[in-house]
User: Fold this.
Amino acid sequence: MMPLPATDPETLLAAIVLVFFFAAVVWWLFATGMRVTPRASLCLATANLLLAGALGTHALRGLAPDLLSYWGSDVLGLLGFGLLCVAVPWISDETPRMAWPALLVGAAALALLLMPYEGDLHRHSMVVYASMSALCLSSACNAYRLLRQRVRRALSATLAAPLFIVTGLLLVRLLEAWLAPGVTPDIRASSSFNIAWLWSTLALNLVLNATMAFFVLMRLILRIQRLTRRDPLTDALNRRALAEAMDHEHARLQRGAPYALVMVDMDRFKQLNDSHGHAAGDAALQALVQALKPCVRAVDRLGRLGGEEFCALLPDTGLAGALLVAERMRVNLEACGFSWDGKTCPLTASFGVAEASLADASAEQVLMRADRALYQAKAQGRNVVQASGA
Assistant:
């Protein structure tokens, strides 16, 4: 094992403070200049600044007033980790749970205030590092959970690993204060334990901020990817994305996995546009999608083909099941109660249903049969579900 470079704790502390400060400036630029996830970026900028302040004031113990260099230093560190808890959900546009981090930080700050900073400070260290560990572990679990919703388990674990490792480092300090009180009471003490811990903290500080920046970058990439696959008005899949999904299901059909298509065309859409304007037509299309969504499963795909035409792709579904889905869609839409400018505008649609067959050379042929069934539904007076023959 290679020995750690012989660096004194004060130099390492100064280096860590500089890295925190530099990271705070970068996140502030993300928030104000580039407008990249501004709430999360500003939160991370403040967290880095607070942690820099915590270590900076800690280094002033014996020089600055005790309230600042002891209690103030500990509270700044707790606030920094509390803000990290808030920032992670914000990166994914999820509302953070602020109550319990605020309660934990407040309780720890009050406990420290009631404990005099005199003599053996291992109890203070235990309160500080136990609270920081809990906050960091919460951030790590949240990061893994949010990543798991978007990427595979292995990548989620890899990206969340720095937060778990930082939690481990804090737990090491907690265990050290508990099992060996008074051995290294201050991170400025020149001991091999402190040197190793500070070097690890410096390295993980860099890795952690880089990982959080990667979270933000990945979110931007996923957002761009979503924009290229979604209809901007209704948030249904666009025609290209739906075609890719249909081709995938048609390939599965050759291995015995059935699928069906439900074509949907809003009735009298042109009349609605002409009578109430294009804004009303756009709102009606959005209302249609909202009425159809509860009728499809997570594995199903709902896409907009163009204009007022939509299509639902139903994997592992036969004709009978697809007809039931289409009928639920028809009933939901008819009952949705759309209104515009205070006037009720009944919405209905016609539905054409087709089940894929091995005789279909491509998914496009299945779509054409569903389209023919749709025209038959229109001919029958609209607001009708019509199945296609093979």
Observations:
- The radius of gyration is 30 Å.
